[in-house]
Structures are given as structure tokens and as C-alpha cells.
Design brief:
With 189 residues, the protein is α/β, with parallel strands linked by helices. The chain is built from seven helices and six strands. The structure holds magnesium ion and zinc ion.
């Protein structure tokens, strides 16, 4: 089993845009490609886990989401970095579209996406880390048995001031590159 770094997408890999419903809104942070390449080289499997209730709300379609992720892959690949996989939750308890209206296990803070990725890709949650800009990302990692880092990009600086009782991060850092530095120093492979 391999160690992974589970990555929130919006506000962690990319600029937070609310619902990202046009490709021209997609913008990786300046350090994102380098951070993923460092994980690749160090033997940590990078995997995106993203809540995309925009699908259940009818704002975007799954085909568009796949196009966004293919575009991220192209930008990473052009500079020698590689994302292993993308997992998304299209559901919401109040989704406008009936097939997506459910209380699922995959919507963060639920652990479902990480659990599925660990089964599919033979990843070891105990040696893995979840990185995100919201406490629900930290809680998701905790629920799945990983370590968890809050980054201050996206909603993170705002979230840092509003920590819910009972949730703690292993580290709170400025951005994904700092998180990767922490992981490479702290976690065994
Ligand atoms: Mg986020
Ligand atoms: Zn779901």
C-alpha cells in the first residue's frame, strides 16, 4: 500500500471561484504544479477529492467537470507533474436534480471519497494526509484516518478564525507548497 496526499480542489489547488462553471475561471495557484511534482518524486500519490454539488444543483454537468479535470491534467503534464485520480461528490441533501438529492457518505466531511480511493488505488490512509482550505476537509481526513492540514488560501484564512469545537488540524500553513514541505519533512513513505 502506498501513501497518498488527498487534495481539495477549489481554494487549495486552484483559485476559489464559487461554482467554477466556465473554463476561463480555472486558475492554478503559481506553486501548484511544483507542489504536485514534488509529491510525485517523493512517492506520495496525489489524489483530488472535491465536493461538486454544482452538479446536483444543475449548475454544471459531469461532462464539464471532467473537462475541467482534463485541463488541470494538461497543465500539470506540460510541466512534468501528474495527478493520480480525481474523485468528486455530485450530491447534496437539497439538490435540485432528484438523482443527486441524497445524504451520501462521499460529500465531505464524510470519508467516502478517501475510502473509495484507498480501495481503488491501494493507498494507506494511516500514512496519508488530507490538505484543504476548509474545516470540512480536515474533518474528512480525520474521519478517514489520515493526517490533515488546513491551508490559508481560498477560504482558509477565514476558516482559521472559526475552528469548530472538536476539530484540529495537524498543521495550519499558508498554502499547498508549505503543506508539501511539511509532509516531506514529517511523514514517512
Ligand atoms: Mg476548498
Ligand atoms: Zn456524495
Amino acid at each position: 500500500m502506498r501513501p497518498a496526499v488527498f487534495l481539495d480542489r477549489d481554494g487549495t489547488l486552484t483559485e476559489e471561484r464559487g461554482y467554477l462553471d466556465r473554463l476561463d475561471l480555472l486558475e492554478l495557484f503559481p506553486w501548484t504544479v511544483d507542489a504536485i511534482r514534488l509529491l510525485n518524486r517523493a512517492g506520495f500519490v496525489p489524489v483530488v477529492v472535491t465536493n461538486q454539488s454544482a452538479i446536483g444543483r444543475g449548475v454544471i454537468e459531469e461532462s464539464f467537470l471532467n473537462h475541467v479535470h482534463a485541463t488541470i491534467d494538461a497543465r500539470l503534464g506540460a510541466r512534468g507533474a501528474r495527478m493520480e485520480a480525481y474523485y468528486f461528490c455530485p450530491h447534496h441533501p437539497d439538490a435540485e436534480l432528484e438523482p443527486y438529492r441524497q445524504r451520501c457518505r462521499c460529500r465531505k466531511p464524510g470519508p467516502g471519497m478517501i475510502e473509495r480511493a484507498c480501495r481503488d488505488l491501494r493507498l494507506d490512509p494511516a500514512r496519508s494526509v488530507m490538505v484543504g482550505d476548509r474545516w470540512l476537509d480536515v474533518a474528512c481526513g480525520r474521519a478517514a484516518g489520515t493526517r490533515a492540514i488546513l491551508v490559508r488560501t481560498g477560504h482558509g484564512a477565514h476558516e482559521e478564525e472559526r475552528r469548530p469545537a472538536g476539530i484540529e488540524a495537524d498543521a495550519i500553513l499558508n498554502n499547498l507548497m508549505e503543506a508539501v514541505g511539511w509532509i516531506l519533512r514529517t511523514c514517512s513513505r
